[in-house]
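Input (structure):
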């Protein structure tokens, strides 16, 4: 029986295995029975397995893990692996090495045998992007590629391009002719749409983001072009702080591209993947901001239809942004339909049942469901429907019996917030909040309870969570019953910019905020930066004054969400109390 030599690299460690075609798999996890045991808390006991199939090659399958398995950054239930692929499970990153010739399928798969069985069950995953595809949710106009690789409809478009690098070079050349110098490619959507960081070569020479779609490529569908134009129109209409600003949309005979605001930051998905669950105050601030974006979209008759952590951008400075309006629907109609019957669009774990059945009937309540599912992921660090594989979910969709997202009592979600999310995650749209504004109002009230309510309703900030906070200062006193932490959380939650002066008998100092994050601190006795903030946050009694402006010539010394410093300050204060008693 033929063997496959497989090497798995985890950092500097190298593990070699022998796999037999059709033989037992290699199981990776933190359990004692795993073939490759990785002692990390975010891994399941049996997280994923690798097996060698003579028809398909080396295949990975997730074993219903709690936190999912990712191949080259894309979540995967099942995927065929190539040499050099990187598997991420929890915090572990594993590089796969093997001889591609030894592991090559005996013959190119054809739509018979195992492939047909997969098509019937819905267990088809694109070999390029890892997307799970169900025959029940793809329109008749789309085609599949049944050659050496199985390609989903999105990757099928542009798969006939002989040299993708040449195509990228042509796009960059055309952008130069339009007055833009490409600095780097920052992402790639599907097979055809690159996103660049670029600089204007004339005028202000400012840095922008450019999303480009080459026209005239073999296999490019009219739907793809229409969706790209829909995204441009949707974002151009939404001149809102929580949506990236569109500067220009240009069309050439063989290229259409969108020039957008450049935002230095990371997606919420990357934030969750790298740091786990998001602190409640930060997650609520993100949720309120995206709810405002959806509210603005609704006023223009736009349904986003693809709200998920990967489409929420968190700038290093400023408010969260909702991106990727490529599958947005104009309730008041932009023109040609971009959705066919039975298409789902979006990402299955965040989509409501009605959208999974038919994306054309999605409305504002569908976006509310998706935002609630996104906040569940952020607050718990767990994927929605984490007990079910994507394949299971697709089968539920076909049967019309999609399970509800369950918020368990053990989930780290504050009770007031859990009630809002549970309502938004109802299977029937009519049982959810009717509008994004209603969802935002309920989430704002819950956030007020979570962060101590009294401070949030202080001073001139009596309605900060119902609308973007209006300019205004406040002043007052703090005590153990009404601690300064509540005030700091309120300023963070509302994305405030300004200077908070804290005074007590022992000391006096300032803490500076920019868009809700700490950017500097100082005390009269010479402390600066984080030590100064810790000293001021640990005070028991005193007075405060907040001015919604920064001193002239102010320069930030760091950027940090305040939660970690608040927790450390409270811990030190508790230690002092225990020592004195």
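Output (sequence):
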């Amino acid at each position: 029986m033929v063997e496959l030599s497989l090497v798995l690299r985890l950092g500097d460690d190298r593990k070699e295995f022998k796999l037999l075609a059709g033989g037992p798999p290699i199981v990776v996890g933190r359990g004692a029975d795993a073939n490759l045991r990785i002692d990390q808390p975010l891994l399941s006991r049996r997280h994923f397995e690798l097996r060698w199939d003579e028809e398909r090659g080396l295949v990975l399958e997730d074993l219903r893990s709690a936190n999912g398995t990712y191949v080259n950054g894309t979540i995967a239930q099942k995927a065929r692996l190539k040499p050099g692929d990187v598997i991420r499970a929890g915090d572990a990153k594993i590089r796969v090495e093997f001889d591609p010739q030894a592991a090559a399928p005996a013959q190119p798969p054809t739509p018979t045998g195992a492939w047909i069985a997969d098509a019937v069950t819905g267990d088809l995953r694109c070999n390029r992007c890892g997307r799970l595809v169900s025959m029940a949710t793809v329109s008749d106009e789309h085609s599949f590629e049944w050659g050496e690789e199985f390609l989903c409809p999105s990757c099928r478009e542009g798969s006939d391009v002989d040299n993708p690098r040449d195509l990228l070079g042509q796009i960059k050349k055309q952008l130069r002719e339009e007055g833009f110098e490409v600095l780097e490619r920052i992402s790639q959507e599907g097979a055809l749409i690159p996103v660049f960081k670029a600089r204007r070569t004339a005028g202000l020479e400012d840095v922008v983001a450019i999303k480009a779609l080459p026209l005239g490529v073999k296999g490019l569908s009219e739907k793809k072009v229409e969706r790209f134009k829909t995204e441009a129109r949707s974002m151009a209409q939404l001149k809102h702080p929580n949506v990236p600003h569109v500067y220009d949309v240009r069309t050439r005979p063989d290229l259409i591209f969108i020039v957008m605001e450049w935002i230095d930051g990371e997606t919420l998905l990357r934030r969750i993947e790298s740091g786990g669950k998001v602190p409640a105050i930060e997650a609520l601030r993100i949720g309120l901001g995206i709810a405002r974006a959806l509210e603005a979209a609704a006023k223009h008759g736009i349904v986003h239809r693809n709200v998920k952590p990967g489409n929420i951008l968190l700038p290093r400075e400023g408010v969260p942004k909702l991106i990727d309006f490529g599958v947005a629907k104009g309730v008041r109609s932009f023109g040609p339909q971009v959705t066919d019957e039975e298409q789902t669009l979006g990402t299955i774990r965040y989509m409501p049942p009605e959208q999974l059945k038919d994306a054309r009937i999605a409305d504002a309540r569908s976006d509310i469901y998706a935002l609630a599912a996104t906040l569940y992921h952020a607050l718990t660090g767990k994927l929605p429907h984490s007990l079910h594989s994507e394949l299971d979910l697709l089968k539920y969709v076909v049967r019309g019996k999609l399970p509800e997202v369950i918020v368990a009592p053990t989930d780290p979600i504050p009770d007031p917030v859990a009630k809002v999310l549970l309502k938004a995650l109802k299977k029937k749209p009519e049982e959810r909040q009717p509008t994004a504004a209603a969802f935002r109002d309920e989430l704002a009230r819950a956030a007020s309870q979570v962060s101590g309510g009294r401070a949030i309703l202080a001073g001139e900030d009596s309605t900060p969570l119902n609308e973007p906070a209006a300019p205004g200062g406040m002043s007052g006193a703090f005590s153990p019953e009404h601690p300064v932490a509540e005030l700091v959380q309120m300023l963070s939650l509302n994305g405030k910019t300004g200077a908070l002066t804290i005074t007590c008998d022992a000391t006096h100092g300032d803490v500076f905020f920019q868009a809700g994050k700490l950017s500097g601190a100082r005390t009269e006795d010479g402390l600066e930066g984080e030590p100064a903030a810790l000293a001021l946050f640990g005070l028991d009694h005193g007075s405060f004054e907040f001015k919604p402006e920064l001193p002239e010539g102010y320069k930030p010394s760091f950027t940090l969400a305040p939660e970690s410093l608040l927790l450390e300050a409270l811990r030190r204060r508790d230690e002092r109390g225990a020592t004195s008693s």
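Notes: The first strand starts at residue 3 and ends at 10. Residues 48 and 62 are 4 Å apart (CA to CA).
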